[in-house]
Amino acid sequence: MTRIASWLAILIVSLAAGAAGAQQYPSKPVKIIVGFAPGGGSDFIARVIAQKLTERLGTQVIVENRPGAGSVLGSEVAVKSPPDGYTLLLTPASYTVNANVYKLSFDALNDITPIVQLSRGPYVVAVHPSVPAKTLQELVALAKKEPDKLAYASSGNGSHVHVATEYFLYTAGIKITHVPYKGTGPALNDTIAGTTQLIFGSVASALQYVKSGRLRALAVTTPKRIAAAPDVPTVRESGYPSYEVTNWHGLVGPKGLSKDIVERLNKEANEALKSKDAEKVLAGDGLEPAGGSAAEFAVILKNEVARWGEVVRQAKVKVD
């Protein structure tokens, strides 16, 4: 009986220590790794949520930029960190593309712990004003009539913009020459200059040039029109009902992150995303708050990896 009593005492102490640890989290600064340089869309989202989580968690949440290889380098650092809740990863939509175009040193789904989806928004399908197409259907007709005349810009081979564009070309049954750039800025600049004729741009980057007349918007890639450009139809409305692409961001941790920590981070992130100022800040970048459970985000990640795997195979997308 003495030995059994000792075991029970040890068990009770261990459970109490675990509960106390969960209640004390976080007891030091939390780091969110971003796989891109400062100033881009992913960095923007990370800093918005870091500020909100700092307020809600009562400890500093900092952003650490680890750019390289389409965000793969930063992902590797985060995924291989201790699963203690102090190193998290900001995952953009391109994270699920990377699983299909890079030889990763980790499993993009099984080596992470999903926490929450943070944001979502469309791409704007835009052309240079010299292109004689006022609608998406007219663009497709032009591409079929003169297949060698058009070129589209992307932020690089294997980027989310690259596969999103190839997905549409496959859906519409057309071919347009791909011109990859090292980043969104150069791709957008050359489309504005007319060097390339088509781009799938974020609302934040492309819509200002649409409003100034330097680009013409043909469609948005989400199922619904957006408030910032209510007259621009969706790709679905333009005759391609199976097509939908959302530009999103989320938060994950390494595999093995405790349920208590996941639930705490998910709860605080969801509450932060409900705030009017967070909604206003995201809207300024053409995005809307997402939120939801960790389980729901896990399903999104799984579905997106599978979807982009099929597109990568169909379009023969490769990273040089």
Structure description:
- This protein has 320 residues and is an alpha/beta fold.
- The chain has two domains: 23-120 and 247-315, D-Maltodextrin-Binding Protein, domain 2, CATH 3.40.190.150; 123-220, Periplasmic binding protein-like II (D-Maltodextrin-Binding Protein, domain 2), CATH 3.40.190.
- It has helices spanning 2-24, 41-57, 72-79, 94-101, 136-145, 160-172, 184-193, 203-211, 259-273, 276-283, 294-315, and strands at residues 30-34, 61-65, 87-92, 112-121, 123-127, 151-154, 177-180, 198-202, 216-220, 247-254, 288-289.
- A six-stranded mixed sheet has the order 2-1-3-10-4-11, with helices on both faces.
- It starts with a helix and ends in a 5-residue tail after the last helix.
In sequence order, what are the helices and strands, one letter per element?
Answer: HEHEHEHEEHEHEHEHEEHHEH
Distance between the termini: 68 Å
In CATH, what is the homologous superfamily of the largest domain?
A: Bordetella uptake gene, domain 1
CATH class category name of the largest domain: Alpha Beta
Number of strands: 11
Biggest sheet record = 6 strands, mixed
Strand content: 15-25%
What is the number of helical segments per DSSP (H or I, 4+ residues)?
Answer: 11
Helix content: 40-55%
The overall pLDDT, averaged over residues, is: 90
CATH architecture of the largest domain: 3-Layer(aba) Sandwich
How many domains, in number, for the residues? 2
Give the strand line-up of the largest sheet. Answer: 2-1-3-10-4-11
- Residue stretches low in confidence (pLDDT < 50, at least 5 long) are 3-22
Report Rg. Answer: 22 Å
Q: Could you say which structural class the secondary elements and strand pairing correspond to? A: alpha/beta
Briefly note the CATH topology name of the largest domain.
D-Maltodextrin-Binding Protein, domain 2
Principal-axes geometry comes out as globular
